[in-house]
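To whoever is on call:

I kicked off a structure prediction for a single chain this morning and the downstream step that reads the tokens threw a length-mismatch warning. I double-checked the sequence; it's 701 residues and nothing unusual in it as far as I can see. Pasting both halves so you can look.
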Amino acid sequence: MELPLDHFRLIGVSPSASSEEILRAFQLRLDKTPDEGFTYEVLTERSELLRLTADLLTDPESRREYENLLLNGASGLDFSSNKEVAGLILLWESGSPKEAFEMTKKALQPPQTPALGSSREADLTLLAALTARDSAIQEQQLRSYSNAADFLHDGIQLLQRMGKLAERRKELEEDLFSLLPYRILDLLSRDLNDQESHKKGLSMLENFIIKRGGLEGNNRSEYGDYLNQKEFEAFFQQIKPFLTVQEQIDLFIELQKRGSTEAGFLAFISLTAIGFSRRKPEKLFEARRILKKLNLSGLDSMPLLGCLDLLLADIDQASARFSSSSDEKLRDWLDSYAGSKLEAICIFCKNWLENDVLVGFRDIESKDVDLDSWFEDREIQEFIEKLEKKSNKTTIKLNLQNQLLKQESSIKITEDFDNKLDNDDERRLPWPGGIKQKFENFDIQENKFNEEIFKNKIIDFYRFLIEKIAELKFSFGELLKDKKIISTSPYFIYLYAFLILFIFGIGIGFLKNNFKKSFQDEAFADKSLVAADKDQNDDEKDIIQGIQKKPSNEINSKYVKPTVEDSFKGKKITKASPSLEEIRNLINVWLSSKSDFLAGKSEINLSNIVSSGLIDRTIEERQNDIKKGIYKEINSQIMKIDFASQTSSRIVVLVELNYLERIIKNSGEFVNETSLTPLKVKYILGFSNKSWKLVDFVSGL
């Protein structure tokens, strides 16, 4: 075997060393024998090689001849088969671990494979482990972390194949494990033209974060010994600038789906960045939806939502958001600002975009933000104009619904149609052109939609008349029960009946004329603008998810299971104008039954006071939990309830709850906890079949 080694390197001296220096180096090498566990035979051969080299270099004639050979191009030393392992050890000791590892690995491969159980096999296997680790260290010093990992990986595989040195193999595995962040940084920091390395780095980064339990590091048992949370955050700040904005969006959304709330906030930032820098306002809607769902401790989301509203030209909403901020210093600054409030909001938004949003992306150039150019952009103007038209037509639609769509049947029709247009965002739209193309498709399908609306309105109008007649019968029946009135003046009965029928006839005529006059406008408004209305409402229907974990024995006593009066127990409410206390009891029955059902304790049998659509949604939620192998413990208490609106067929109440939700695996392992005090919920009741039913609710108002 020929080794890339000369006698001067073998003994560890320079070519100009004197005989005294050579003898001194020779003695030091003899005294410093490797103690890693090599066999006595190979160490004896090593000593013999050192002695032969010292003799050659201290003999003037022999040294002169050798130096002439070097000058004539001679390189390397030949070793006999019984001396090659000792030669490889000396090559390793001379500072060439990479060359020594490659040659040792080759010596362990067929046809040079040593006899099983021989001292040669043991020495070569040990040398492979030592040279693999030193090669990795040498590559790390050169910041070639990927190459270092390759040496460690090859060393581990070789030891696994040989079935020896389990402890040495464990050391290599730990080294490879701790090298992971540096490997990721090495792969991602390379030129983007090296797509293979970049994709590999992205995959390794995602798997690394998932295994450690998200950006929060909830699963630290595997990584805590060498990379604590502070070190990880520093590492991640180094990684971010090497990722494009779309790569960050994809990464953070995936991590958020796996329960990382911090990833959700970073997804919001990334979506805002791509929306503003690439002039894609639809991305701002998606960012807003994500932010509304977050429940990060200490995060004041109002100013951030206000900035998004400002960029979408909703000045009134933006101003209201800033006024609702919990940051007193921010509110004081706005109030004391010398100029207009709009000017102050624009300054805040500009600084936020420059310092917090448009930074840390590989493909977004950090520069001064120009809000004027944003609003002057033609595509932005067209988008905002369409948004304003949608908003105006949605108002018309809602007014018409208040006149004609009062009953639970109409609510069901609206829900069915809204479900077809649910999740109005860029990523999940079935139209290639996104929201812009969606508007055009609404126009194309107008005729088909008008036919559907016509059929639905005729049915709803008929049901509306039937229920109005039922209400009059109900009211008239209550009047007849008042014996005092009958005994005092029987003629009052006929007078009241005549007046009621007269007023009802006028109402029928008015509704008929109004229906004919506005039907076409309503059909068009329903078709082309349901998406905007749904986008506004869907964002508010998601209950905010919490991240703080608490032991079950620390649940605050204010979160208690709803209590219901024994006299109620799910009893129908048939009064035309129920009291707040009766509505409170109905909602409490719903909360209690829903809590037991989602915890897997009982079935949900409330068809007499809750609409079938709401029950079906709850059953679907439980089925999804069963598939995930979890159940939910929900504790809530109504703290405040007020009427928002009330008609003969529809009641809306605003409720504030103390709300606590705990997610637990079927094995009993705690997963997550959400605590909201208060949680504001809007409950909607409809009058159908002579009784009131809970038909819908909107959370997080």
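Update from on-call: the warning came from a stale cache, not from the record. Cleared it. Sanity check on the structure: Residues 552-699 form a domain with the Nuclear Transport Factor 2; Chain: A, fold (CATH 3.10.450).
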